Amino acid sequence: xxxxxxxxxxxxxxxxxxxxxxxxxxxxxxxxxxxxxxxxxxxxxxxxxxxxxxxxxxxxxxxxxxxxxxxxxxxxxxxxxxxxxxxxxxxxxxxxxxxxxxxxxxxxxxxxxxxxxxxxxxxxxxxxxxxxxxxxxxxxxxxxxxxxxxxxxxxxxxxxxxxxxxxxxxxxxxxxxxxxxxxxxxxxxxxxxxxxxxxxxxxxxxxxxxxxxxxxxxxxxxxxxxxxxxxxxxxxxxxxxxxxxxxxx
Length: 249
What we know:
Elements lengths: L2 H4 L3 E12 L2 E12 L3 E5 L6 H8 L7 E6 L2 E2 L4 H6 L1 E4 L11 H11 L4 H15 L14 H13 L5 E5 L7 H14 L4 E6 L2 H7 L2 E6 L2 E6 L1 H5 L7 H9 L4
Parallel strand pairs: 3-8, 3-9, 6-7, 7-8
Antiparallel strand pairs: 1-2, 1-4, 4-5, 9-10
């Protein structure tokens, strides 16, 4: 962890997080802390356990063992308090497809407890941050994959949480939209702890201060992107990724 991060409060604490499905271990004793100001790229090949870890951190899946805490709140025993300080963009960003974008975000804001002018301002801010102005009156089901992803991101930002957990935040976005989302993450980074679960290595170079690589449910690397790149003669993150995640033949 960089020296400057040591002075920042720890907002995410994961200790020994494990998830088994029958005899299959999807996540195996994953542990890490994340402080305010850090943007963590949570990397791994398909099936490595990234989304399962994110769901357990967000309180949407019960771990077999281990704990996850957000701003000091255990996501299982103090779940309501943990969710109040969390913005979560799940894989696939499920919504109510028949609702318009405005109706969906207004509904989410009401669930968060906002009313009146505060509710309107929260929705307007989230729409502005994610550039959804042109599709506000469209049903979510009629939107492109990229716009649906941005609606999911908007609902995660409504309450301006100190912790963001984003599962594939740029999935389905075109290059310009990816740049916009990465810029937004960079602008928010100083005041939040952000986890980005992704398999897009360029995402790590673009916005992350730290990267964890997971393979077969276990952490195989935890370092800055520059430190990871230094582990391979090519200096390329994709070569390091393959080296750590491809099992020998």
